[in-house]
Give the backbone structure.
Amino acid sequence: MLIAQLNIRCLQKTQWIVGLIIWLLGQQLYPQYYSGSLPYSSNQQNSELSVGIVGVESLVAHDLSNVILDNHGFLDKDGSNLTGSTSSVLYSGNNPLGYQTGNLNTGSKWHQTDTGISLIVSGGFFTMAAITYKDNGTLSRIKVRDEINRYLPNYENKIDDLTQYIPYAATYVLDAFGVKSRHKLLRKTTTMATALALNGIVVHTMKGLIGEERPDGSANNSFPSGHTTTAFMGAHIFHKEYRHLSPYYSVGAYSLATFTGMFRQLNNRHWISDVLMGAGLGISLTELAYFINGEIYKEKGINPIPEPGDKEINERRPSFISSTIGLAGLTKAFDNPESGVSADRGYMLSAEGAYFFNPYIGLGATIQGQSYPIRFSLEALDAIRDQGYEPVFQALGSTNLMAGPYFQYGFGKHIIGGKWVAGSLSGSDTRLNLRELDVEVIDPDFELLYAEYFPETTFAWSTGFYYKYRIGKITALGIYGQYTDSDLKFTQLLLEDLESGNPVYVEGDPLRKTFNSWSAGLSLSVLLW
């Protein structure tokens, strides 16, 4: 208990330190949003000529062919001072016209900049890590681990040892094929080296101070996940170097990092709180590395490239990929009078995508995971407790894989649509265990199987609607609702009696249950214009 309290205190202190680092980093990256504008004055004779707000890195090379440079700074062709232009850095390479590089100040708030959004996202990961860093409750790390082990109890795959490094290698492969990144090779390499050095220092220091035991009990260095930190660091570097080419570079890199984090949990090497903290550290430490190297290199080592997001939106084919989370419920409660158990409400997670042939009709697919907590009837619960046992619940779950037509209509930033999909529904084996009342430690070795259900894969169809609002050129937030129709057939194994403390099981009658469900919740979409 004392060790657990010390771990929590160390975590809380660490999170305060990380939060302070983010605040200081934001203050250094964008001081104008904290203490007023900070002008960059020309080092020529006219030192009062303000040509911009100094930031961290050059993000864009704008064509200023109507601008010439004299001994006193920037002048328009008519000889008047060029004022009101703001720039991150002045590009001073072989550029006789004094090309300006950096984000033009269009009135964006700090939280609307790429760095600001990145720090906010990393802060969100830190918050979720704190929320899940507990042993009890719906969002506890124990609950999440148990759900994973339930579906994939003996999973082992070391692919995550490789995937964490792919974005780093990819930057050099793209260089070899002539794909231009934001920064030249030397600056990009030293930025990576700085980021990885920060990774090693921060992550290993936290691991040593907190000493969290891994889920598999192999070591006391679980928090945070080093693999996940490295993976999201590589993804964020890839995003910062190539997002000007296409948003899909970023989508692919972050998807790969998420894949790495998921496999750290599937392999039972990390808790979800470890992975969430690692994701936040990977993004925020990368921003710190770019800031440090921006201070060192200044305007050197920058490739003049076009402003990201200049691509026209093609609304003729509004394809998308999205993820959803929502509440779910069975229209008719699953119940079994023989064992006194039932389930009706739970949650659903899904990922889906659709390719549109025209603005209105497309073909898509979805994969959905549903979970419905099990409840005992009061009569069954009293009977079990009278014999000195407490029931241990395991949720009734299913995985749906479906495909079919999608329909949608867009107007302005609004998108409304619907779908009709069909495919398979596979239920997960569900166990109901009993634990002796005087045993406080939750350990499967102290539990007795009460009932187990073995569902068969069956046909299912689903229909639904969605509304999305574009918050950016390629991102949208929305709501959805859907109905799924299916029947599940179960075989079951039931505890009949205890003879001298030894359980006696019988095979129960096959069950065929209506498994129709509804779901409603939120969605996050990436629009593939």
